[in-house]
Amino acid sequence: MSTGSSQTSSAAPSASHGHIRLLVILSCCATLLTIFLTTLSSQLPLFDSSPHILLPPTPNFSIRRALASASLRWDVFYFAPIAKDGYVYEQQWAFFPGVPCVMQTWAVFMNAVQHLGHGQRENASLEWEDILLGGLTSSLLSLPSVLVLYDLTLTHFGSPSIAFLASLMSLLPSSPATLRMAGYSEPFFTFLSYTGMRFCAHRRWFLAACCFAAATTFRSNGIHVGRALYALALSSFAVSFFVYYQYQAYRLFCEGTATPAPWCSAFPPSIYTYVQGKYWNVGFLRYWTLQQLPNFLLGAPPLLLLLTFATHYVRLALVPRLVAFVRGRAPTRRSPDDHTTRLPFLSPTIAPHVIHALVLCFVLIFASHTQIVLRFAAAMPLTYWAAAWLVVERPGWARWWIGWSVLWGAISCVLWGVFLPPA
């Protein structure tokens, strides 16, 4: 018996090492393929010629120019000017400063390198090309995010096979261009939030709070992640940047001005909420119009996956525990490795992820631009745990999901390249 158990225990690390080596290769290939397909598509006639305003076409082909031009889509039109000139217009406050800071840092570095030995020019203006290429550094986070997801899954489920399967599913995200190439918030947010979740799983609360606070500099729903995962004091630290960001806007638009902005008298005064509603029509049921039906259909696959798995988990894992608690009985005891064998996807430790996914799905359906679930789901570990659950327990549906992921992933890269929605 001891020989068999020792062989099993030694096999697990060996399997993990093999999984990681393969994930490194596949993740790098997926990132390069995304960049290649998106950049190649950007050479086609554009639906919207706005990128040519910042980067006019040149007679000679340049890889740098092609990469920078391919990344200049949608939200990057806000991030790049913020990186160059700071927050100038009210609507820019809907975008957090994490990505512009990365872009600006890279552009300043490249400017210094280009003028090394020639003396730094005073008040040298940052080049648009360097700013946009700074956003492309986000692609360097693709591999670390996959490896952190593997470790996070292994911690929750205790199974190298499930960790490997979920990580493989993450190579087929619902928004590959924004997750692996573009200067968007998703790559940074994904890496930081995954790392924070891993620290939570290992009960390293302060480091988790630091990661979530950093994630909030890139995207506001880092706040929801923080609240769902640990106690109030550390959650307050995680949301501290968001509060400071709102305070800076309050000082600019509300204090010492003859005509304060309309949102200044609201409680709480939030420029983020105001700008989202004014410029993007975000609000309860505002998106429920007939012309938005195609966007609901685009977001349906990841929404259905998340809601189906979350409902399954709530029904078979959360409800029985709540009933037992109400009746004053302890939950049914199982052996330590039961969740990795008989009930692998009902681990009690993933309950916060399920609750967070349910809340986020309902917000996206009823009070937001529903199709952005394509970007949000790509940054959520539960999406890939749910996909792995389909492979193990619903293989027929898993084939549909994988087929859709491959097909939509390729189509979305082409749509991004030619500047067609969804963003």
UniProtKB/TrEMBL annotation:
GO cellular component: endoplasmic reticulum membrane; mannosyltransferase complex
Signal peptide range in chain numbering: none
Pfam families listed in its UniProt record: Mannosyl_trans2
EC number, UniProt record: 2.4.1.-
Classification via PANTHER family: GPI MANNOSYLTRANSFERASE 2 (PTHR12468)
Function: Mannosyltransferase involved in glycosylphosphatidylinositol-anchor biosynthesis.
Name of this chain's protein: GPI mannosyltransferase 2
Species assigned in the record: Trametes cubensis
